[in-house]
């Protein structure tokens, strides 16, 4: 029993270390920041386009590997300062960056996407990575669009153009080669089913052998605390589950929820917990292994749909300032941007997302099933 749990955790560790090392190389040699700044040319200086462009940039960064936390840490300082100089409300920029990063976060190539797909595969729910990514991304696009309409996005069209967007630096040879090798890795994983962690180590090794990045600098960009937390929680959850320790929770859930409300209830519970804790480090490793057992206690409940509800419910609240993404946006807010008001607004919005996530999962659950 312990051997199976340890084996699964070692595989998770291999996957996380490989993916984060590869994108640690891309971050250390400036490729990620350079690509983000080049992409800002899409908005052509138009103020109203800055929020959706920052959403897309955050989504693309998270999608190709770093995950939401690293993408937000990379983009938020630049986005918050640029948006503030252009007259875009900091609250709106925060919501765009955080929701954009989360929209790409369940990509099969990202750190958190790798965590999620591994955890689901261990429960017999593998092979649905793109379905998870689609609905997770759609929920964040819906919420971001609502935020754009509610918090001044349309009013920005009256502002015209701005000079606040700096001219991006020229992409160098090492950046182009890094992007090319990363693209080949993504193609190999997608088309030829290369093992995610092992192939990421191979791509990182090529970058290091070609001296396109420094191993020491790349290792500094790897989220060691998150990796240790995820693997530790996953191991503990596996051992408790195999020992039958979650039977009581499954029975309690079956008493609290019905077949119709199960998706909304689990989304709300995970959202409420994730608002002040780590989604990838605590909530997903703790709750995804429970999905098949919870579904078995309620006739008609699909374990895949329940898993997607857990993922969406726990992620939509991540703009809370008590969660990592919200905290990063507040830390990146420039002087004069009223950080106290930003903290209050993100707090209200983050906890409101627990209810919004529950509503989305209630209505979308029939679409989640394979």
What is the compact description of this entry?
This protein has 370 residues and is mainly α.
Please, could you describe this protein's structure?
There is one protein chain. With 370 residues, the protein is mainly alpha-helical. It has one domain (2-368). The protein is built from 18 helices and no strands.
Strand and helix order: HHHHHHHHHHHHHHHHHH
- What is the helix tally? 18
Shape: globular
The largest sheet, given as strand count, sense and whether it forms a barrel, is: none
Q: What kind of assembly state do the chains in view correspond to?
A: single chain
Low-confidence stretches: none
Find the structural class using helix and strand composition. mainly alpha
What is the averaged pLDDT score? 82
Intertermini distance: 30 Å
What number of structural domains do the residues give?
A: 1
Beta-strand fraction estimate: under 5%
Radius of gyration: 20 Å
Number of strands: 0
Q: Helicity, in percent?
A: over 70%
């Amino acid at each position: 029993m312990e051997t199976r749990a340890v084996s699964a955790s070692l595989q998770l560790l291999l996957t996380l270390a490989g993916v984060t090392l590869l994108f640690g190389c891309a971050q250390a040699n400036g490729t990620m920041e350079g690509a983000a700044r080049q992409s800002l040319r899409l908005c052509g200086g138009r103020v109203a386009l800055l929020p959706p462009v920052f959403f897309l940039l955050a989504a693309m960064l998270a999608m190709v590997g770093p995950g939401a936390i690293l993408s937000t840490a990379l983009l938020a300082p630049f986005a918050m300062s640029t948006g503030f100089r252009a007259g875009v409300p900091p609250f709106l920029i925060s919501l765009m960056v955080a929701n954009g990063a989360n929209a790409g976060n369940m990509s099969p190539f990202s750190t958190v996407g790798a965590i999620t797909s591994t955890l689901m595969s261990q429960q017999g729910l593998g092979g649905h990575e793109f379905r998870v990514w689609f609905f997770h991304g759609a929920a964040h696009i819906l919420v971001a669009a609502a935020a754009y309409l509610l918090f001044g996005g349309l009013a920005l069209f009256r502002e015209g153009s701005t000079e606040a967007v700096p001219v991006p630096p020229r992409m160098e040879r090492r950046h182009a080669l890094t992007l090319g090798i990363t693209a080949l890795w993504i193609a190999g994983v997608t088309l030829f089913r290369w093992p995610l962690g092992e192939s990421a180590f191979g791509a990182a090794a090529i970058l290091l052998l070609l001296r396109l990045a420094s191993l020491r600098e790349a290792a500094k960009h790897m989220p060691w605390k998150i990796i240790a937390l995820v693997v530790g929680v996953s191991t503990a959850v596996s051992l408790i589950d195999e020992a039958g320790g979650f039977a009581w929770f499954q029975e309690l859930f079956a008493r609290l929820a019905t077949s119709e409300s199960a998706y909304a209830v689990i989304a709300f519970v995970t959202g409420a917990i994730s608002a002040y804790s780590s989604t990838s480090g605590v909530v997903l490793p703790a709750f995804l292994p429970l999905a098949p057992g919870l579904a078995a206690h309620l006739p008609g409940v699909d374990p895949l749909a329940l898993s997607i509800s857990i993922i969406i419910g726990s992620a939509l609240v991540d703009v809370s300032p008590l969660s990592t993404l919200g905290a990063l946006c507040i830390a990146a807010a420039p002087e004069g941007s009223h950080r106290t008001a930003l903290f209050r607004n993100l707090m209200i919005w983050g906890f409101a997302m627990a209810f919004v996530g529950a509503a989305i999962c209630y209505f979308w659950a029939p679409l989640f099933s394979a």
